[in-house]
Amino acid sequence: MTTIDAALARHLLREMLRIRRFEEKTIELYQQEKIRGFLHVYIGEEAVAVGVMQALTRDDSILATYREHGHALARGIPMRSVMAEMLGKAEGCSRGRGGSMHIFDAHHRFYGGSAIVGSGLPLAVGLALADSLKQRNAITVVFFGDGAVAEGEFHEAMNLAALWHLPVLFCCENNFYGMGTALHRAQSVTDLPTKARSYGIQAASADGMDVLAVREAAATAVREVRAAARPYFLDLQTYRFRGHSMFDPELYRSRAEVEDWKRRDPIPRFAERMVSTGVLAATDYAEIDSAAMEEVEEAVAFAEAGSLERVEDLSRFVYSETDDEQ
Amino acid sequence: MTTIDAALARHLLREMLRIRRFEEKTIELYQQEKIRGFLHVYIGEEAVAVGVMQALTRDDSILATYREHGHALARGIPMRSVMAEMLGKAEGCSRGRGGSMHIFDAHHRFYGGSAIVGSGLPLAVGLALADSLKQRNAITVVFFGDGAVAEGEFHEAMNLAALWHLPVLFCCENNFYGMGTALHRAQSVTDLPTKARSYGIQAASADGMDVLAVREAAATAVREVRAAARPYFLDLQTYRFRGHSMFDPELYRSRAEVEDWKRRDPIPRFAERMVSTGVLAATDYAEIDSAAMEEVEEAVAFAEAGSLERVEDLSRFVYSETDDEQ
Amino acid sequence: MSSDREPRQATYRAAVREAIRQAMLADERVFLIGEDVGRYGGSYAVSKGLLEEFGPNRIIDTPISESGFTGAGLGAALGGMRPIVEIMTCNFSVLALDQVLNTAATWLHMSGGQFNIPVVIRMATGAGLQLAAQHSHSLEGWYAHIPGIKVITPATVADARWMLPTALEDPDPVLIFEHARLYNTEGELPADGAPVDIETARVRRRGHDISLITYGGSLPKTLEAADELAARGVSAEVIDLRSLRPLDTRTILDSVARTHRVVVIDEGWRSGGINAEIITRICAAAFHELAAPPGRVCTEEVPIPYPHHLEEAALPQMLEIVKQAEATVAA
Amino acid sequence: MSSDREPRQATYRAAVREAIRQAMLADERVFLIGEDVGRYGGSYAVSKGLLEEFGPNRIIDTPISESGFTGAGLGAALGGMRPIVEIMTCNFSVLALDQVLNTAATWLHMSGGQFNIPVVIRMATGAGLQLAAQHSHSLEGWYAHIPGIKVITPATVADARWMLPTALEDPDPVLIFEHARLYNTEGELPADGAPVDIETARVRRRGHDISLITYGGSLPKTLEAADELAARGVSAEVIDLRSLRPLDTRTILDSVARTHRVVVIDEGWRSGGINAEIITRICAAAFHELAAPPGRVCTEEVPIPYPHHLEEAALPQMLEIVKQAEATVAA
Ligand SMILES: Cc1ncc(C[n+]2csc(CCOP(=O)(O)OP(=O)(O)O)c2C)c(N)n1
Ligand SMILES: Cc1ncc(C[n+]2csc(CCOP(=O)(O)OP(=O)(O)O)c2C)c(N)n1
Ligand SMILES: [Mg+2]
Ligand SMILES: [Mg+2]
Q1: pLDDT per residue over D258-285, tens digit each?
Q2: Cβ atoms B15, B205 nearer than 8 A
């Protein structure tokens, strides 16, 4: 394992805590009915997005799902613009039109925020195809859940990426459930790297509750993708601590299972390790955490102070220039 | 290898020759514009359908593609009714409405005749699910091409069949091309059993130009499917001697490649082997062949004498009872 | 969920659940298949408790494979079962459209009458829950374009309860669209409930100045609009189509013959929605009886945005219906 | 395939090919991707020869994965390319509908204007070749229901040649439907050809008794019908819509203002086809100018059967158009 210096440790911890505090706040705001619609939080899975993002450059492209706040933050999209989006404000990164499930940011090459399971996979192939045709030195990373593996689009995209030697990093956020359906009830073979290899795609599993393990796995994967211009598949094993969305009565899993996983919470686990190995000081956590909470509060204030898009603009951007149909 | 007696040898040869002569005749009829639309013939691939059908009982269900005349004949659907269908006559097995691509026969549990690549695969899962729920002792066999393996529906169906332990025999008629696209240009991994195994499905390849090899592979597969109530995947390697359809200029493969495969023509190959091992007499071939040609001529006569469905019946069977929309 | 001895209030959700449950009790060929219908209890909680009652062979959780399990439903129907396929929402149903358009709708005709497919496919439809552009389509009118399938849209609790058994009896594919905003609505389930036809429209309110024609999730809004219109002195008749394919042209024309004016309310996008078919049929058959051009109140032609104010602006609203009706009456 | 110095006869197929070729020569971001577009030469032979000219990086044969390669086309467009996706026929396009409806049509709006998707998706459409129920759909009118995409239907050789470059210039997704029976038709390619707009309709024949409104594969039949009507003393104006989304209501209404009578000819299934939208717009805007209810000649509501006589009975026919036009004129 590479050695971790304090700056890096601080950075990783900060990024995870920013997501954690952000997500906790969104739940609060949901209960206050300031955020509406579907809300899917990333609590428990923070190490995945944070770990993977460390391996990317700003030229790389990213696609994610409806559970994408963490990715947006870890990618560097300003928290206030993400929070404003959650509240449907015009200052949000998608002008408030997308909400929780549709974070977009062109500047950060963040291509959404798609809420159709599996639909980002062919898009990733296409972005990588464009890069490949233009001989642009960049890769595309697509995040998707274990549930998406059952979709036909997964199969089609994996084959295309492998067949055409495209620089795609497939990041499966394997939290062992797609809504209430356990992986073993959704897949005849639950070892996901086996599936990837059946397309000739190199694959590895990593402990998604360990930000360093993810970071390392991603670094290796990205190196391979860049060097060989071939896809790579990461099975990042993690767990969502909360329900699927705010509506989930969680009938399908036991309290005990959830508690077991919570003992592997990536944030205290990493913090404790860094402190016990002397990389971080015991006081660092509180300091980083309160900065994160402050950032969240600022973001909320920004979002709350934001404006609503004018109703007259409803039809703007159905098409790029003017809306032609009558 | 099981020993072959004369009756069986005669039967296999007869079935293959019936298909060959039938298909040759359809080409003639197409040139005469008596058959229209798309026509996909099975010449070169006869050993596949004939070999597999030997393993089935009348309780088993069958699904096939638009290249399904051979399967229909080998299943025992009367040739005249298939030929009448090709000519669009009311006496055809689908009342003439389906034509070449849509042979159906309820009596023979022949569920079509689908012209959407891959679409039969989920249906096969469903037929097998029904059998499984009803504890009916029967299996479902679905034929599809190597081209279909790239479709999302293939992936979804394979997983469902494996996950739910359903009695489906997946017969991939691997003729190494989907229209003009060679298997290695369509699949990142061209060994198809590898794919099947990634779903935990038992799989085998067999020489699809050798009717005995197919028959044996199918017998083994069907035994497994019945005994274990699990799916099985057969990669039956074969070749189409003609173009994809009557429109195909065959720009994508060399004459030499076609000639190479023609040397493995399943019909003379089998006949010669049977004669050289003394199972059949040298005169048997001509006798069986002329019977087949006679049957074809009868079928054509029947079809030509057939009637056209009344135009007033156009809207019958949009729904089972009365057509309600105005 | 006792049997139907007493009249009682029930939610639309409970009515659908009871319909499924009773169908399963009555016919062991019936089963429910779809994403999260079992352990999760259904994404809109419709099937909660059914797994416990009927077990995993009859309440079948599927992987996220819409084309796969919908096709499997068709296949099981061909194999003699009576599947109820649940697709979570119509937004995802397009992933299974090949099986609906190219198989379910063609098989019987194309096989010369040999293979009917007695499958029921249920799905949630509609907007209004701030679910944004990918979770807010209303595709029922679009599906109604396809010959070979039937498309029904129960709008009341009683229809939610009693159209399903009829759909299951139907020998051909029936698609049921349940508006997501209806699940929590309450209504009366009469004690003498019995299966109802799935092909005719109903007059939900009598009136003589104008016909308001609607279906599904827009029925409550339209009834409210009729109340408001009454307060403003306009007597509106409200037609609930119930079925979009077949379309009950007779009931529509009878109403128009009485009122001579019509507004269609349709949560689909305006252009090319089922509203246009209704208006076209009226113009073809009752052109000279119309006192004014038919009006329509539909969804704006935009992907539905997330924020409440924009979503509301995109969807048909009660006051918009009132305004359009007044304009049509004044025309 | 030389450049456009001389006026000459060309087939529709050759015109599409030339359009693709010239676009690829002019802009290296343009590439063609789809099943069998390369080595096979295209299922309708449109792209024959292009692989040899442009090589496999720009003429990309795909596996049979409609959703996969269509989505890849969208992604490549997002990535700065100008892909032309060829889906063999609209019948298979439903397998890729999720990418069209839920991604292509929503991305720009949902991202607040950040991500437009400049993709062109071409596909063959229509019946008349005895290809039976799974290969004979006409879905262009259906797609035209979706806001966020454009839907065009070149009907002439000149439009086949010159609408494509405009579609490629368009910043948003454009779907092009090419009727399979048009590929072999011949027409003149003028020497001074240049890109044409993809949003307006054209009057293809002037007349004053009735407007016949159509598009795509039905244009030739409709022009024949107009000839026949002329012989019978009826002067018919023929409108070629060219684009179904947006729909050029102005040109339609101008024509109706002159003729006061209208018949729409649409190869889609009758109920809920684009015909209904056209009629609805006419009734809304020109109700009092209409001398008779609008008529329509469409495809029967059946899966298209294989035999010639049944297929012809199912599709709009020249004499049926004549009959309907006469009836509408007489009404
Ligand atoms: C095509 C499609 N089908 C169904 C859904 C409903 N749905 C939303 S999230 C989800 C579960 C996805 O599970 P997974 O991919 O494992 O992601 P996770 O939520 O666990 O992060 C489902 C079924 C959807 N959004 N899209
Ligand atoms: C979904 C779909 N896409 C494309 C086509 C057009 N098409 C018809 S046959 C075919 C090739 C199929 O190849 P394969 O599965 O190997 O079968 P084969 O013809 O070789 O027997 C294609 C692309 C189709 N019918 N359906
Ligand atoms: Mg998951
Ligand atoms: Mg093949």
Answers
A1: 999 999 999 999 999 999 999 999 999 9
A2: no
* Backbone conformation region of residue B144, classed left if phi is above 0, alpha if psi is from -120 to 50, else beta: beta
Contact (Cβ atoms closer than 8 angstroms) between residue C298 and residue A297 = no
Q: Which ligand is located closest to the Cα atom of residue C42?
A: 1
Cα Dmax for chain B: 67
As a whole number of angstroms, the distance between CA B56 and CA A95 comes to 61
Query: Cβ–Cβ of A201/B194 closer than 8 Å?
Result: no
What span, in angstroms and rounded, lies between the C-alpha atoms of D142 and C146?
Answer: 10
CB neighbourhood size of D49 (10 A)? 15
Cα A312 to middle of ligand 2, angstroms: 48
Which amino acid, one-letter code, is at A30? Y
Minimal-distance CA residue to ligand 1 atom 21: A145
Give the model confidence (pLDDT) of A196-224 as tens digits: 999 999 999 999 999 999 999 999 999 99
Tell me if D298 sits within 8 A of D316, measured CB to CB. Answer: yes
Phi, psi of A162 (to 5 degrees): -70, -45
Phi, psi of D31, rounded to the nearest 5 degrees: -145, 160
In chain B, what residues touch D67 (CB-CB under 8 Å)?
152
Please determine, for the modelled complex, whether the ipTM score is greater than 0.95: yes
Whole-number Cα distances in Å, B188 to A167, A198, B170, B192: 15, 9, 20, 10
**Pairwise CA distance, residues B54 & B74, whole Å:** 9
List subunits contacting chain D, requiring 3 or more Cβ pairs under 8 Å. A, B, C
Q: How far is the CA of D69 from the centre of ligand 4 (A)?
A: 19
Q: Does the C-beta of A202 come closer than 6 Å to ligand 1?
A: no
What is the per-residue pLDDT across D9-56, written as a single tens digit (0 to 9) for each?
999 999 999 999 999 999 999 999 999 999 999 999 999 999 999 999
CA distance B158 to B203: 12
Task: Using the Cα atoms of residue C38, residue C39, residue C44 and residue C46 in order, give the sign of their dihedral.
Answer: positive
Determine phi and psi for B138, rounding to 5 degrees: -155, 160
CA distance B176 to B147: 8
Task: For residue B182, give every residue at least 6 positions away whose Cβ sits within 8 Å of its Cβ, in sequence order, or none.
Answer: B176, B252, B253, D39
pLDDT tens-digit readout, B36-59: 999 999 999 999 999 999 999 999
pLDDT in tens, B240-264: 999 999 989 899 999 999 999 999 9
* Chain D, window 17-36: residues with a beta carbon less than 8 angstroms from a chain C beta carbon: none
Query: Which C residues in the span 10-39 are in contact with B, Cβ-Cβ below 8 Å?
Result: 31
Closest CB from C64, C301, C308 relative to A117:
C64
Nearest CA to ligand 1 atom 12: A178
d(CA C126, CA C218): 10
Q: Say how far residue B96 (Cα) sits from the centre of its chain.
A: 19
CA–CA min distance C291, chain D (Å): 10
φ/ψ of B311, rounded to 5, equals -60, -30
Closest to B153 measured CA to CA, from C103, C148, A120: C103
C111 touches chain B (CB under 8 A): yes
Q: Is D266 near chain B, with CB under 8 Å?
A: no
CA-CA distance, D158 to D170, in Å (whole number)? Answer: 19
Does C208 participate in catalysis according to the annotation? no
Residues 6+ apart with CB under 8 A from B103: B64, B68, B69, B72, B77, B82, B85, B93, B94, B110, B112, B113
Instruction: Give tens-digit pLDDT for A261-279.
Output: 999 999 999 999 999 999 9
* Run of H or E including B7: helix B6-31
Cis status, amide bond into B231, omega within 30 of 0? no
A177 lines ligand 1 (CB under 6 A): yes
pLDDT at position C1: 42
